Amino acid sequence: GIAEDSVPDATGIGAAAVWNIENETFVYEHNADAALAPASLVKLMTAVCAYEVLGDRMDETLTVEYSMIAAASGNQVGYYVGETVTVHDLFGGLLTRGANDCAYLLAYAADGGTDAFVARMNERAGELGMKNTTFQNATGLDAQGHLTTARDIAVMSQALLSHPLITEYSTVWMDSLRNGETQLVNTNKLVRFFEGATGLKTGTTD
Questions:
Q1: Which residue of 95, 99, 101, 185 is surrounded by the most CB atoms within 10 Å?
Q2: Percent helix, strand and coil across the chain, each rounded to 5?
């Protein structure tokens, strides 16, 4: 994203932070601490928090209730009331397709609701030293005060990659759910065209 007060550098990037995971240093920064609307990059922290609770429960199922998906909008898998879904499939929908209903359902699976889950996200961000981030939801849809920075995105990305099984979801180019009835196509085209890419997430806002 590009904040109104951020000036693109020679690459045309408004804000960026490149983190070397091996020696834990930033090798490139540009407006790295500019507070921006994070869009679906928020789902990196959604995945961190959900995985820390549900990572050993991938085969567990959740029956969809209206209250769980009533607020869902934008990009979705389209789960319906009464449908049963596994935690495994929710991670696939979240990290491959960027589906907002999957974010809501993971919040319910982990904490019984979105308010408690977003509180978990903000608490975890504090523990990770993400000083310029405040989450208002688990989807990345625009909301007042819902902001993060390129530097903090790098930090939560490293936290997510500390769970190696995550790349089994984030590196998938195409997959399907519901016995092939619902197609998943990764929003990150680098996964298909750039050898060695592991994701993690893309995001767009108006």
A1: 95
A2: 40, 15, 45
Residue corresponding to tokens 């993690």: 200
Taking only the tens place, the pLDDT of each residue in 56-75 is 999 999 999 999 999 999 99
Longest dimension (CA), the chain: 51
Residue whose tokens read 């959740």: 62
Q: Can you read off the two tokens belonging to residue 195? A: 């050898």
What is the dihedral angle through the alpha carbons of 128, 131, 136, 142, rounded to the nearest 10 degrees? -120
The pTM for the full model equals 0.92
Is residue 101 left, alpha or beta, with left meaning phi > 0 and alpha meaning psi from -120 to 50? alpha
CB 125 within 8 A of CB 135: yes
Asked if residues 86 and 57 have their Cβ atoms less than 8 Å apart, the reply is no
